[in-house]
# Entry
Amino acid sequence: MGVSRASNGIVTAAFGIGGLVAGSLIGYVSDRTQNRIGPQLCASVLYVVSGLVLYFAKHFYQIVIFRLILGIASSIADTMLFTTVADVYPANLLGFKMAVIFVFDNIGNMLGPLLGGKAYEHMGVGGIAIIAIALGLFELQ
# Structure
């Protein structure tokens, strides 16, 4: 795309900016409305949208938009995950249930880049986008 390697920081920051804004807002809205399903469905739709943006991306700014949308979706999904767990389990089980979530989160953080790199080698950006779209659609089921 003809951008410097330093531009990777912009792509990384876009994810964090999207997450910062969405996480703060969705937690507040979810508490006020007591609605957990609506935001989770919104996150799933945003995962699909981000995959579509990535699939059709031809310019650097489109990659930044992809990461921004992905950060928003991820923050909404994570916030709803923890909120739902807190709604469902009694206080005496919350520590263990949250620990289980973090164990799998860390497994994902370790394996994601390895598996994603291999998938990218074999399928390219379009393949990664299709995986993101498929996972978002699967979650909508």
Observations:
- The chain has four helices and no strands.
- The mean pLDDT is 93.
- Helices lie at 8-33, 37-56, 60-88, 91-140.
